[in-house]
């Protein structure tokens, strides 16, 4: 068979009844042919699904209609664009794709003819992995449940309460700002509530409570160190290894609920070495100074009472000291001595200090120096009166060759004694009213 180009002007063939001539220019190309006149194509049978044209239109049950088509088996296509809605009926819809883009803002799950919490129970989203990762809603707990952790990046907040929306206000927020963690309540009080029998525990090495402006400390607690309480940013109370330290005063209310109560033999101690102790031993009460003297001081009088309403000792400011028996005053000191109410019994000797007068040309006789006094004359001397009414003294004079001039006074026997030049002369002097009296005891 020869192969090559065929160059003709007309194509002529015989049909048995004569020649037919077709110019070569009238032959239609196979690609996008343009046909004129009448084109007759034989009708394909219903079983023929090959690509053919039909001379007449027909409807074949083998093909789906374009309006509401019904498919069975698998329908496979390359690209599908729908201008209307898509409804898929079935129990499982599978989309095999790496990325699913949904232009709509809202995705509705659990849409049935009559939605309820029962139909919504255990509904949600499941991500397949080594184990299912899901977020589901439970009708039993009325809450969403996640099988996995929820991680928020820095400065992204978990917002609770308030108004939904980008410009809404939120009552409670929880977040991390790359350095610190925050739980902020700006829509009301923050309550931490545990049920009965359970504890509220905070696990940290340093616990600090600040004011809302974050410029004042209210409470601080440090691991292995102090717990401190503040007032207006000033530390007032601090625990130490030895107990507590208080900066300022301690105030107590009038109710017994606010008193300081210590058990028997529990002591209040003062001083670096517990020098002063106050305690009760179960039987008696003690104020005990363990190292030195004990002073009781007052801007007014001091009362010591064996029981309420009954005085034992009264020490008056710039005044007397009074001693009582069964609330009756028996002894009172005065500016001149003591006053005794009732009898006075002495068991044992009265020991009196002897005062030696410093010799001078003129000496005041003053019983406040002692009720027994001695005076050795160094020359002729003069005595003056310094006694108050009721006062007395015994004066023993060593005169030698010297004389003594007495103040104005009344002598027992009518005249002043003659002083011994070799012995001591004893003279008793006392004052009654404004009169000074004297009596010679004798030479000793």
Helices and strands in order:
Layout: E1 10-14, E2 19-23, H1 117-120, E3 123-127, E4 133-138, E5 143-146, E6 158-160, E7 172-176, E8 181-185, E9 206-210, E10 217-222, E11 227-231, E12 234-239, E13 244-246, E14 268-270, E15 276-280, E16 285-289, E17 302-304, E18 313-315, E19 321-325, E20 328-333, E21 338-340, E22 354-356, E23 362-365, E24 372-376, E25 381-385, E26 392-398, E27 404-405, E28 410-411, E29 425-432, E30 435-443
Parallel strand pairs: 22-24, 23-25, 24-26, 25-27, 28-30
Antiparallel strand pairs: 1-2, 3-4, 4-5, 6-7, 7-8, 9-10, 10-11, 11-12, 12-13, 14-15, 15-16, 17-18, 18-19, 19-20, 20-21, 26-29, 29-30
Question: How is this structure best described in words?
Answer:
With 444 residues, this protein is mostly beta strands. Among the domains are: 117-150, no CATH class; 151-189, no CATH class; 206-248; 262-295, no CATH class; 302-340, no CATH class; 354-443. It starts with 9 loop residues before the first strand and ends with a strand. A hairpin with a 4-residue loop joins strand 12 (234-239) and strand 13 (244-246). The chain has a 6-stranded mixed beta sheet with strand order 22-24-26-29-30-28, with no helix packed on it. Strands 9-10-11-12-13 form a 5-stranded antiparallel beta sheet, with no helix packed on it. The protein has a 5-stranded antiparallel beta sheet with strand order 17-18-19-20-21, with no helix packed on it. The protein has one helix spanning 117-120; strands at 10-14, 19-23, 123-127, 133-138, 143-146, 158-160, 172-176, 181-185, 206-210, 217-222, 227-231, 234-239, 244-246, 268-270, 276-280, 285-289, 302-304, 313-315, 321-325, 328-333, 338-340, 354-356, 362-365, 372-376, 381-385, 392-398, 404-405, 410-411, 425-432, 435-443.
């Amino acid at each position: 068979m020869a192969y090559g180009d065929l160059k003709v002007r007309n194509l002529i063939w015989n049909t048995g009844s004569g020649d037919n001539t077709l110019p070569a220019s009238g032959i239609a190309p196979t690609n996008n042919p343009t046909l004129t006149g009448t084109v007759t194509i034989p009708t394909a049978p219903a079983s023929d699904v090959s690509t053919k044209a039909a001379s007449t239109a027909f409807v074949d049950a083998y093909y789906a209609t374009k309006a509401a088509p019904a498919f069975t088996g698998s329908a496979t296509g390359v690209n599908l664009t729908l201008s209307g809605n898509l409804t898929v009926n079935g129990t499982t819809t599978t989309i095999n794709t790496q990325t699913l883009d949904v232009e709509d803002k809202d995705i509705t799950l659990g849409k049935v003819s009559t939605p309820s919490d029962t139909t919504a129970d255990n509904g949600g989203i499941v991500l397949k992995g080594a184990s299912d990762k899901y977020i589901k809603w439970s009708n039993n707990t009325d809450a969403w449940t996640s099988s996995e952790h929820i991680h928020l990046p820095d400065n992204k907040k978990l917002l609770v309460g308030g108004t939904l929306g980008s410009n809404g206000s939120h009552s409670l927020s929880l977040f991390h700002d790359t350095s610190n963690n925050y739980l902020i309540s700006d829509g009301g009080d923050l309550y931490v509530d545990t049920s009965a029998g359970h504890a509220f525990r905070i696990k940290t090495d340093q616990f600090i409570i600040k004011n809302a402006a974050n410029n004042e400390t209210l409470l601080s607690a440090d691991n292995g160190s102090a717990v401190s309480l503040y007032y207006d940013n000033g530390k007032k109370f601090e625990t130490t290894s030895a107990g507590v330290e208080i900066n300022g005063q301690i105030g107590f209310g009038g109710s017994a609920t606010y008193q300081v109560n210590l058990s028997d033999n529990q002591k209040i101690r003062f001083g670096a070495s517990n020098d002063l102790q106050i305690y009760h031993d179960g039987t008696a009460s003690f104020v005990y100074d363990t190292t030195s003297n004990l002073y009781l001081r007052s801007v007014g009088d001091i009362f010591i009472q064996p029981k309420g309403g009954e005085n034992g000792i009264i020490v008056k400011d710039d005044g007397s000291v009074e001693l009582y028996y069964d609330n009756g005053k028996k002894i009172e000191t005065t500016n001149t001595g003591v006053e005794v109410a009732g009898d006075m019994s002495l068991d044992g000797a009265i020991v009196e200090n002897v005062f030696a007068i410093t010799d001078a040309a003129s000496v005041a006789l003053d019983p406040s120096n002692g009720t027994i006094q001695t005076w050795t004359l160094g020359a002729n001397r003069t005595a003056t009166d310094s006694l108050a009414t009721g006062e007395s003294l015994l004066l023993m004079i060593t005169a030698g060759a010297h004389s003594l001039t007495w103040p104005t006074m009344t002598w027992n026997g009518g005249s002043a004694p003659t002083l011994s030049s070799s012995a001591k002369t004893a003279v008793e002097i006392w004052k009654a009213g404004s009169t000074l009296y004297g009596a010679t005891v004798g030479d000793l």
